[in-house]
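Notebook entry, structure prediction.
Reason for the run: the old model in the group folder had no record of what sequence produced it. Starting over properly, with the input documented here first.
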Amino acid sequence: MAADIKGTAVVWSMGGVTFTAGIVSASNPSMPQSLRYARTSENTKIKDNGGDIKTIVYHGGLKTVSITVVPSSTTIAAAVTSKEAHIIAPGTKVTIADASGATGIEANWIVVSCTENRTVDGNVTVDIELENAAQEDLSTSAA
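New structure, fully documented this time:
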């Protein structure tokens, strides 16, 4: 969706977000509908002998991305093929780029799950869940 922003500058929509590994490609087109990015970690609380928390150690940093797409194409049969291609195998590496300059999501990600959603009165969507341990370089694989 083209936008002409007046007033305070904001990052608008998903227009600059691109993906690899079949999420968006010439042979498997789709219309990304939403993207949710989160950073989380585990934590360990260290208490003194009185039970008061004195230190919190944050470890196991994890970044997650949830993407919802509408698989599409020029014909119904081709749209079905696109839908099937969007059900990506867990463990597949996916690369995300964001032309808006938001560097948080620009990384290599690992597919955790893909879910096809259908309703009686709507189009099919596919939810794709990705994750990346914040300290990991997923550009190489372990031997």
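Summary: The longest helix spans residues 76-86.
The old model has been moved to the deprecated folder.
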